[in-house]
Amino acid sequence: MKFIYTLILFFVAVGAVAQPAQLTKMAPYTDSALSIYISYPETWEVKHVPGRVLTISSPQVQKKNYSTSSINLVVVSVDSLGKHITNKEVLQILESAYQNEFTGYKKVSDEFITINGYEGVRLIFQCELEHVKLQFMTWAFINKKNTYVFTCKAKANSFDKVRPTFDEMLASFRINEKVTYLPYVDSAFGIRVNRPNDWRVIRDSASIFSLYSPEEPPHNYSEASMSLIISAAGNANLKELSDQMQKVCVKEYSGFKKVHSERFTARNFEGTKLVFTGTKQKVNLEVALYGFLSEGKAYLLTCATHATYFEQYRAIFDSIINSVEFTGVTRYRSFTDTTYSFTISYPTGWEILMGSETPLTISSPKLPMQDYADASANMVVVQEDISMNDLLPQLESAYSAQLKNYQKIKSEVGSADGDKCIKMYFRGERNNTKLHYMIYVLQHLDKLYSFTCAARDASYTTYEAVFEKMMGSIKFK
Fold first, then answer.
1. How far apart are CA 150 and CA 74, in angstroms?
2. What residues pair up with 55 in beta bridges, in sequence order?
3. Which of these, 338, 340, 376, 367, lies nearest to 470 by C-alpha position?
4. Cβ neighbours for 73, distance < 8 A, ≥ 6 positions apart
5. Listing from the earlier edge strand, what are the strands of the sheet with 269-280?
6. Sign of the C-alpha dihedral computed for residues 100, 102, 107 and 112 taken in this order
7. pLDDT tens digits along 163-207
8. Using CA atoms, how far apart are residues 53 and 71, in angstroms rounded to an integer?
9. Phi-psi domain of 451 (left: phi exceeds 0; alpha: psi -120 through 50; beta: other)
């Protein structure tokens, strides 16, 4: 424990003091050993011991060998401080260490505070070091196996001037967790990308699809997104596409400011890239717009973040763009059920099975090395004399009893081929597999037809458009 005290106190003592530097532009810093990201004034100097500590100092005072202000980070394992340690105990450890080490220690304030989703403690105090009166601000928090201790320092009489710089630096701090990706395939438009596994896929009227990073507390909005738009391009070339992209962005974003543009190559296609800053819906953004051409169409991928976060997500955007692949538009063929006199379209390559209890099952090809399909649609004809409105609660009750962690998402009323239909969406777990369902109940003449579309939860968004197209294609003779 004494070693940890000494380590923290040593980096509190170095770096020193004086007047704050003029904040001009923030530069990104990533430490792959610590797996962290932080932004800092570009005129400040970064020193680090890989995997252990980090010091960022303002420029040295002319003719003197010390810096004006500094911020230090020490990362220590939780075990070295004590297993199951709390933020309150971290505060007590820090305060005890400072009281014992510094002459004239005087606490200004302490509080439990969350910065960028990291819950920790902030301690502000004053003391004397080598006959200079200093003010410190320490922010410490626990994340998994490590405790992160930031110490911001300046002369006491100038601390308030440099405080906004410290706050901005701390607000930019991120721990870069290892990113894993899942494939997302839009069968209707024949495009495949890899998305971070915790990013959401949204379909709306503004784009073919959009990917959103998790909503971050305390703001409850996504920090980053990627959306795809496809438009007719005719015989346009990349130069013409690049010019058109910039014209559109100038109109769409107030305060548009071009950072740079360039050609890029990803997989087997070449495109054009435009990076710019601007404001949209009162939010300051930094955007990388990628455009490429294929078979007379322009594919526009917009990668956007809040202006201060772009560097943090750059590698993720690059991974998404480099994963783009054209899979070809899904082709459909028609199946006619002679027993119940209806037709339905289904993707070529999917398998048709017919039985007694389940008259019709349409399944995607089985996954490699697995003995099950990734997605399927089953039809059941309801023999009982029951109304559609009464059937839905029974189905919900049956599935809630069969599935672990059953969660209803929504239900809605519509029409298909002139007949009334009801759709119900829910998810749950069966045989240790998380599944996502869409139940499609259709009434035709005196019979109710229940279609159950299901896919693994992680890949449901891949098949959602396929299910909708299949159900929308049903026609009775």
1. 7
2. 47, 72
3. 376
4. 34, 36, 38, 53, 54, 55, 148, 149, 150
5. 200-204, 207-212, 224-232, 297-306, 283-294, 269-280, 254-266
6. negative
7. 999 999 999 898 877 788 888 887 667 788 898 988 888 876 567
8. 11
9. beta
Q: Find residue 261's DSSP bridge partners.
A: 274
Task: Give the pLDDT confidence score for residue 149 in this predicted structure.
Answer: 92
Whole-prediction pTM: 0.50
- Please tell me whether the peptide bond between 218 and the residue prior to it is cis, using omega within 30 degrees of 0: yes
* Rounded CA separation 283/13 (Å): 40
How is residue 368 written in tokens?
């490699």
- Cα–Cα distance for residue pair 28/13, rounded to 1 Å: 25
User: Tokens for 119?
Assistant: 């819950």
The angle at the Cα of 141, spanning 173 to 103, to the nearest 5 degrees, equals 105
Q: Rounded distance, CA 438 to CA 258, Å?
A: 44
Q: How far apart (Å, rounded) are the C-alpha atoms in residues 271 and 300?
A: 10
Cα separations (Å) of 185 from 266, 316, 325, 448, 462? 17, 18, 9, 32, 5
Task: Sketch out the chain's domains with CATH numbers.
Answer: 2-175 (3.40.1000.10), 181-326 (3.40.1000.10), 332-476 (3.40.1000.10)
Q: What Å distances lie between residue 49 and 72, 73, 149, CA to CA?
A: 12, 11, 15
Find out whether 390 and 445 touch, Cβ atoms under 8 Å.
Answer: no
* Residue 462 burial (C-beta neighbours within 10 Å; 0-12, 13-18, 19+): buried
**Three-state SS for 242?**
helix
The band of 4, judged by pLDDT with boundaries at 50, 70 and 90, is: very low
> Cα–chain-centroid distance for residue 151?
29
Is residue 289 within 8 Å of 274, Cβ to Cβ? Answer: yes
**98 φ, ψ (degrees, to nearest 5):** -65, -40
Mean pLDDT across 457-474: 80
Confidence (pLDDT) at 283: 87
Residue 413 has pLDDT above 90, yes or no: no
